[in-house]
Amino acid sequence: MNDLKQHQLINELKFKAIRSSGAGGQHVNKTSSKIELTFDLEHSLALSEEEKTLLKIKLTSKLTKENVIILFCEETRSQHKNKELAIKRFLHLIKTNLVKPKKRRPTKPSRSSVLKNIEKNKRKSLKKTLRKKPRLD
């Protein structure tokens, strides 16, 4: 993903500052350091239709019904650092899920591996037959 595309994606992001949960004393009650990042996948101009469909398939668990990605970040007490972290996570998420997997070419197992498997199964079979009680016919 090139810098221009990253910049376009970042411009399409929407941020919302929320009060962070957890310990922190009086400071946490009056500052909004938690960041909620939202990205509307459906109406994005930075992504092509092909990329959108690929992301919809791969990110089904992270998308809302309206095809919006929502990420939260409340790691630090600084709103700006949380915003940077959220942007980094978002870009990483998009980059990793836009990679198309290589098509698998089916191959035959080699003759030696087939023979090894047969030998291994024979040894296992022998071991298990030796564990049985002897028959008294």
Automatic annotation (TrEMBL):
Classification via Gene3D superfamilies: 3.30.160.20
InterPro entries linked: Pep_chain_release_fac_I (IPR000352), Pep_chain_release_fac_I_sf (IPR045853)
In alphabetical order, the GO MF annotations are: peptidyl-tRNA hydrolase activity; ribosome binding; translation release factor activity
Instruction: Please report which protein family the annotation says this sequence is part of.
Output: Belongs to the prokaryotic/mitochondrial release factor family.
Q: Which PROSITE patterns match?
A: RF_PROK_I
Q: What is this protein called?
A: Peptide chain release factor 1
Q: Which NCBIfam families match?
A: PRK09256.1 (NF006718)
GO biological process, alphabetically ordered = rescue of stalled ribosome
